């Protein structure tokens, strides 16, 4: 019955899933930590190394284009966006945060592929560091959960 397990976390099994990970290099210490946590969690959920493609791009604004290339390849069950945008003194923060997020969402909806968005948008480096590990793990978990859900719905 649809919705019968509402509120109950699903059993996650990534053994048969193929996952693409796009990591922005800007704020590299944070994005590297995001990637380590994400990749470790993917493996903990059963995703095989051979079924993970991890690429890097310059910054958060480049992430959606790489995701789009992966999405149209039809080689992946889920994608993950990793990045870090830290507020500065200019409007540039809002532009990068808003446009990267909108791009990630557009790729997901246009291609009907789950994308876990872990592009951190924080006020300062300390906030980013405090979130990097949990958000990296969360992104992997969400990607697997949504891939399974979409498979069930189709």
Concise description?
The protein has four helices and four strands.
Number of strands: 4
Shape-level CATH architecture? 3-Layer(aba) Sandwich
CATH T-level topology: Rossmann fold
Please tell me the overall pLDDT.
93
- Order of SSEs: EHEHEHEH
Radius of gyration: 15 Å
Number of domains: 1
Helical content class = 40-55%
Tell me what portion of residues adopts beta-strand conformation.
15-25%
Strand order of the largest sheet: 2-1-3-4
Termini separation comes to: 15 Å
Based on helices, strands and strand pairing, what is the structural class?
Answer: alpha/beta
What would you call the shape? globular
* Parts with pLDDT < 50 across at least 5 consecutive residues: none
Provide the CATH top-level class.
Alpha Beta
Q: How many separate helices?
A: 4
CATH homologous superfamily caption: Lumazine/riboflavin synthase
Structural notes for this entry:
The structure is a single chain. By secondary structure, this protein is α/β, with parallel strands linked by helices. 50% of the residues lie in helices and 19% in strands. The protein has a single domain (19-51, 58-145), classed as 3-Layer(aba) Sandwich (Rossmann fold). It has a 4-stranded parallel beta sheet with strand order 2-1-3-4, with helices on both faces.
